[in-house]
Write a structure and sequence with these properties.
Number of helices: 1
CATH architecture: Sandwich
Strand content: 35-45%
Distance between the termini: 76 Å
Order of helices and strands: HEEEEEEEE
Largest sheet: 5 strands, mixed
Strand order of the largest sheet: 2-8-7-4-5
Structural class: alpha+beta
Helix content: 10-25%
CATH superfamily: Immunoglobulins
CATH class: Mainly Beta
Number of strands: 8
């Protein structure tokens, strides 16, 4: 009986390790920012953030700070966009005041993450 228990425990342990090893390593990939591009001036307050997806990512962490991350007076957006069968998008929207901003995105899965891809832009909407 004891041998059977040890054998079952070993099989369970090995099966668990196999699941961990099957998670694709995305850490060497890069999220490509599409809009707003670095240096862009957005002429409306609703800013649509768009990026190209990374294969095997389960979610994306998007952050927006003003005036930048090194000297952030505020982090205005810090969200995880989860990919599932009903939502496969790589975008987010945020209403922002006239100012300068940095935004960044990284891809994540259950075991790995990419580095942040980062860009700077400003909002100069009329009629604010």
């Amino acid at each position: 009986m004891r041998t059977l228990f040890i054998l079952a425990a070993c099989i369970l342990f090995l099966a668990s390790c196999e699941d961990i090893l099957e998670v694709p390593d995305i850490s060497g990939q890069e999220v490509e920012l599409v809009a707003p591009l670095n240096g862009t001036v957005v002429n409306q307050n609703l800013v649509n953030f768009t990026w190209n997806g990374v294969a095997d990512a389960d979610a994306y962490l998007i952050q927006v700070a003003t005036p930048n991350f090194a000297e952030a007076s505020q982090v205005l957006l810090d969200s995880i966009v989860v990919l599932d069968s009903t939502f496969l998008g790589t975008q987010a929207s945020k209403s922002l005041l006239n100012s300068t901003y940095e935004w960044r995105v990284k891809a994540v899965n259950s075991a790995f993450e990419t580095d942040f891809s980062q860009g700077a832009f400003s909002v100069q909407a009329t009629g604010e």
